[in-house]
Structures are given as C-alpha cells and as structure tokens.
C-alpha cells in the first residue's frame, strides 16, 4: 500500500504526526480505518498510540461537519497532508469547545497546527493553515441545531450522511434520531467481560450495569495487557451478550456458531457451557431497554478463566497441541465454529485457543456453497441442537465504535445485506435438529435487517419454524451497542 507523501520521520515522531499521516491516507484512499491503524509503527508507545487513535477517530467521527466548515473557507482544497492537519486541528477545536474553557486554548491549537505543518508539508502551507484554523475556530463554535431542524442541518452538525439521517427520521422519528446521532458522536467507553469465577476483578475495573461486564479505564494498558493475555478478561461490548443469552447454550450440547469470526461470541458460548449453561431471557414484546430482557440473560455470569487450550480444527490446526482423550472426556460439550477463509480467521483461532472445558472444531468454508456436505467432509454432525447465526450486516448499531462505517455505507447496502442475511438464515436452518434452537442476530438497529428478514424467513419456511423470543437494543435507550437477536425454534 502506498500512502500520501510525508516525511518518513513523521510516522515515528509522536501521536500527532502519526495521526496526520493516517488521516491523509484515509482522505486519499478511504480505506477501512481499522486496517490503517494496523500500519502504525511499532515504535509508537502505548500512550502515543492511544492518543493517535483518539485524534484519528475524532476526525472521522466529525468529518462531515469539518469538511463543510473547511469548504466554506477554502476555495481549492490543499494536498491531503495539509488537509489532514486542518482536520485534526478542527477536531481539537471541537473537543476544546465541549470541555471546560481554558484561556488561550484556541491560540495553542493554532500554533501547534502551524508548527506541525512546517514539518509535515512546507512553510508556505503553514501560513495557509494559520489563516484557516483561526477562522475555523469561530465557525465551529455553534449551538446544536434547533429542535425541528431538517435532515440536512442535522446531517452536517452531527456528521452523518444526509440520506442516512433521512432514513432514521422516517424509522425512529425526530427525537430518537437526534439521540442516536448524538450517541454516535460520543467516544465509546471500553468494556470487558470478566471471566474468573469466584474472584472479583481488580478495583480499577469499574463495575457496569451488566453483570459480568466491567468498564476499562484509559491509561491502564500496562495492567490490562496481562489480563488479556492470561484470559481473565475479554474486551467485549455488553450488547454482544444478547444473542448468546437467547441461544442459552447448555453443558453437554453440540453448538454451531455459523459466522464465528472474530470469535467473541464463540468464546462467550463456550464460557457459558463451561459454567453449566444458563436461563433464556424473557420474551421481548416492546422496544427499549433491551426490549424484553428481564433477569440477566445466559452468558452474563463470570466463567472459568481459561488456559491456552488446543483447538481441534478440522481444516487447519490453529496452534496448541491436540487434546488428550482425558481432556475430551472432561469437556462439557462441543462448539463447531464456521467462517469463510480470510484474514479474520487468525483472530478466530486466537480466541478459540482460549477455550477450556469445551471441545472446539473450526471449519473454514462457505455455508451457502457447502451446506451439510461441509460438515460431513470433516466428520461433524449434520444437525445441531443450538445454532447461532450472527450475520454480516450494515453495523448501524455499532457506529460509535466503528466510526468510519457511516462514510462507507450506501443506501442500497441495507437491501443487499438483507438478501444475504436471508440466504444465510435458510442455509443455517437446514442444520438445526428437530426441536432445536436457531438464533439469528445482527449488530444493526434497522428493521430491514432484523424483523423483516425474520418475517421473510418464517413466511418461506411455512410453519417449520416459529419465533419464540426477540431482544433488540437501541443504543440511546440501553446504553450499549445496538443489536437484534431472534430465537427461532424448529418444530417437529
């Protein structure tokens, strides 16, 4: 990959220059930001890396508002490296306006941007940055839009595509749309699932509203890393618990995770089985507050801390040593994890290697092409008592975490995803044993990918399945990522 021209030293000399380099690359190529972050040099320290990510995410989160403001000040956009400086300075101005007032703060931001420009681009462009950022400070200090503001005004201020704002206004109404837009613009806290039974987490891990989940404070990477490596915690938003909660995996079952990568829900499934299983959440009939969630859903309780157990992989061994006969006999069930071959498989292998007490098989293949033959080929069951399909989606419920999703989405993506989701739902339904459970889930908050897909599936299957329960969370109501989960039962 070729990045925009910038001094080689800029990539290694601190968070701000590294952020400018990444923003310039994103502006020029519109690549996925998670892929760009992977290119950060190893020389960047933990705190610098965190600061760099904060600046980059801030620019992308506020890109629409910044781009509109800069467009009114500059007739001809400068090269990408200079634009990156302007965008980062603009984000810093927005951030400063939302915090406590500090004397001379704007002047400091202007001065720092000018000095960075001299190194990253040229003294001539530094003069442009000086003039533009001074004017930008005034244009970005504005109150939120009026209560009845139209879609165009909301889209610019909250930095979302106008077509998406119009869609949400129709689906959710003005008040909820505004709450959603504001939610997406706030930096996301980091949550983790504590996995050690009978042992409380360290005091610096803050308790959350969801049992088994803690909030991870910033600035503690030195303490967090060994907990991650040792398997005591797994970074995971509380919204991910909903699908596994409805699935209610039980000890001794053979469970299929049909779209398993990167493996967070696979690990939660096996932890739940290892801990003996749990109760199914009450049926959902209305929206809000996880819509139908009462007592903690299964999978919420802390479970045994794992060791780096082996993964019995049916397509390619993913590390570790083969389990012994005694280890297999001591397991409390089996998980079959399936996903397409590709770059996400390595992350899935890492997570499956943390499983203890549950036998695991990893199959790399396409459910839409292989069907039951894919499992027969590897000596695995053709039917399962419990199946999770966490389907690929638009990610409309997790935009606070995935800040560039809104700029990559196209209006037709909802229909395209819904078609693929329905096809995957039919494919996985053929793998459910009579009387078995199938949970369809997404991280979307749009009915087209949730209720509409399930309704089409039930219509197509003509009474062979019934919808028993559903849980759908809205971020601005429930306080965590949005998600939809639907428990379907195969009849007969």
Protein traits:
single chain; 492 residues; alpha/beta; N-utilizing Substance Protein B Homolog, Chain A; Rossmann fold; 3 domains; 7-stranded mixed beta sheet; 4-stranded antiparallel beta sheet; 43% helix; disordered N terminus
Describe this structure in words.
The protein is of the alpha/beta class and about 500 residues long. The chain folds into three domains: about 10-140, Orthogonal Bundle (N-utilizing Substance Protein B Homolog, Chain A), CATH 1.10.940; about 150-185, no CATH class; about 240-490, 3-Layer(aba) Sandwich (Rossmann fold). Helices cover about 45% and strands about 15% of the residues. It has 21 helices and eleven strands. The protein has helices spanning about 15-30, 35, 45-60, 65-70, 80-100, 105-120, 125-140, 150-155, 160-170, 175-185, 220-230, 240-245, 265-275, 325-330, 345-350, 365-370, 370-375, 405-410, 415-430, 450-460, 475-480, and strands spanning about 190-195, 205, 215, 235, 255, 335-340, 360-365, 385-390, 430-440, 465-475, 485-490. A seven-stranded mixed β-sheet has the order 7-6-5-8-9-11-10, with helices on both faces. A hairpin with a 5-residue loop joins β2 (about 205) and β3. It is globular, with a radius of gyration of 24 Å. The relative contact order is 0.10. Residues about 1-10, about 280-285 and about 290-320 have low confidence and may be disordered.
